[in-house]
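quick one, 202 residues, struct below
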Amino acid sequence: MASIKRKHPFRISFNAPAVLTFVIACVLVQLISLLTGGGSNRLLFSVYRASLLDPLTYLRLFGHVFGHGGWEHLLNNMMFLLILGPMIEEKYGTSNVIAIMVITAFVTGVIAMIFLPGTALLGASGIVFAFILLSSITSFEEGAIPLTFILVAVLYIGREIWSGVTAQDNISQLAHIAGGVVGSALGFLMNRWHMTQAHYRR
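---
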């Protein structure tokens, strides 16, 4: 007598490993920050000008993207990442998304250390803006720039420049603009690479 396998109608899919792992890590870091009264963020998960002889300086250079100033700051960033991240990870692949996050963290961290002395920067806002600009590059033709990319760049980066001029501080604006520039550059590079590979496969 043949056995009949039952199909489960629903299952949870870990559809975007890089993005979901990053989000989980950010939530854990926020919980640790609450337990330590913000001490963990000051020690590891925010970036500021410090001695290059201190090994923790290099950890903070990348780790600052995991720390957030509060639950509202965290939830706003995670919402954008969860909306945009799966689409970007499906298009570019998990390893490329990890590379985007690492490069964005490094660039925004270096900018904070050079241009924002005495100020601590933390949060995934730079990565969010990198994803926003990446998501606008839905298609890429040789010799053509997508109009959606131009509009998003003008609206979002223009808004950040205006906020930097009119606000009392330009801390987050610098991170946003840097993230947007990184996302744009990597998006065009990856799309050009895909086009080159497709051309060779013909």
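The chain has eight helices and no strands.
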